[in-house]
Amino acid sequence: MEIKKISKKLMKRLPLYLEYIKSLPDSAVYISSAKIAAALGLGAVMVRKDLAKVSDGGRCKLGYIRTALIRDIEVFLEVTSTRRAILIGAGNLDRVITDCAGILQQGIHILAGFDMDPAPETTCGEIPIYAMNKLFSFCQAYNVSVGIITIPGEDAQRICNRLIACDVDTIWNLSNAHLTVPDHVCLRTDSPAGPLTPLLVHPKAEAAQRTA
Amino acid sequence: MEIKKISKKLMKRLPLYLEYIKSLPDSAVYISSAKIAAALGLGAVMVRKDLAKVSDGGRCKLGYIRTALIRDIEVFLEVTSTRRAILIGAGNLDRVITDCAGILQQGIHILAGFDMDPAPETTCGEIPIYAMNKLFSFCQAYNVSVGIITIPGEDAQRICNRLIACDVDTIWNLSNAHLTVPDHVCLRTDSPAGPLTPLLVHPKAEAAQRTA
DNA sequence: TAGATTGTTAATCGATTAACAATC
DNA sequence: TAGATTGTTAATCGATTAACAATC
User: Fold this and answer.
1) Would you call B197 and A40 a contact, using CB atoms and an 8 Å cutoff?
2) Predicted local confidence at residue A198, as pLDDT
3) CA dihedral over A35, A39, A45, A49, signed as positive or negative
4) Which of B5, B79, B208 lies at the smallest CB-CB distance from A6?
C-alpha cells in the first residue's frame, strides 16, 4: 500500500465526518460521499479523497458501509487509544475540563494539574494538583505525552521547554503566548482572543472582497 | 487607491501582529517586518504583504513606525468600534464571558442572554437574561449584529435562522451543530471537540508525512 | 556610498475542484 | 443495461515564498 499524504486540514475534517456519520440512525447502512459533503457543506470529491486515505471500503453505487467507515476513521484517528496529559496552571483546570469535554472524552486523559505553589493536597474534582518541582518525575512515571499550557505571558515558553524536556511531544497552548517548539513536537495554540477576531471584522472583509 | 484582496487568513494574522507590536516597549520606535516575522514564526515577505494591505507607513531601511502601525491595524480591524452581541443558551454565558475575555474586551459587547424559559428577572452578572420571545424586538431595538449560539443539536439551526431573521449578520457557533447560513452572513464555528482533535493524532500524522 | 529595508512581480507550492474512467 | 457512485488524474485556484527593483 502506498503512502498517502496526510494534511492538517484532513485532520480537522475527519472528526467532523466522524461526528456526522455517527449521528446518523442505525437504519442508514450505507452513506455516500455526496451526502456527507452536503451535510457538512463541503465538496463531495474532497470527501471521497479524504475517505480514501483512511478507508478502502467505498462501494460503487452504494457508498460506504456506515459502521465500517466509523471504525476506519476511529482507527485512523486512534480515538480508541488514550493519550495522557497534564495541565499547567491549575487555576484553569476546571474551565478546560468543561470546555473540552468532547476531546477529553475521546482521547485525552488529564492525569494531573501543576501549579507554582499549590496548597498541599489540592485537587480539582478528582484530579490532583502538584507543585511544579514534581513535573519531571510525574511525566516519566506516567508516560505523559500531552502538555496543556494555560498560564499567560513570558512563563509560557519556559514551561513549554520544561515539558519538552519531560518527553512531552504535544503542546496544547491555551495562553496568548507565542511559543516555539522543535520539529518533532506538535504545537497547537488556541489563543483566547487571537483567532476569534475575524469574527469582529467580517463586514469590512466581505465588502472588500466584493469590490475586489 | 486600488482594492487589495483580504483573506480570512490575513484576518487571523493581523490580530497576532497587533498583539505582538503592542507588547513591545515604547522605546521601540521602529519595527521591521523581519522582526515581526521572527517573533511570530512567519515569513517576512508575508508580513510585509499583509501590512501593505492595512498601512502605507513602511519606511525603507527603518521599518514601520510602531505607533502608526498599531493605529493602522486597529483602524483596519475596527477595534475601536464595538459590535453588539447577544448569546443564546444563557447557561453558558458565564463560561463564554470568561473564555472570550480577550475578544469581548476588544470589540464585542454582549448585551443580553436568551434562554427558552428563564426564571423572571434573571441576570448573569450584569447581563440580563430574557425569554426567547423577546429576541426579535430586542435585536431591533439595540441593533444587534452578532449572535452567539451555545445550545447544541437540532435547535441550533433553528435559532440560527431566527437570529438571521433579526438582521444579525454574524453568527458565532460554539455548539457542535453544523449550521448553514446565507452568503451575506458570516459564520464561525468553534465546536468544542472538532478542531482540537488534530492534537490527538499528531504522532501518526507526523509519521505519515515523514514517510511520504 | 553601502546597507537595510520595503513593496511588487513572478515562481512555487499545496489544496481544492473538475473531468472522467472504473465498477457494481 | 442504465444509473449511481467511487477513486484517480489533470486543471484550477489561492496562498506563500523567492527574486529583485526601489528607496532612504
Assistant:
1) no
2) 47
3) negative
4) B208
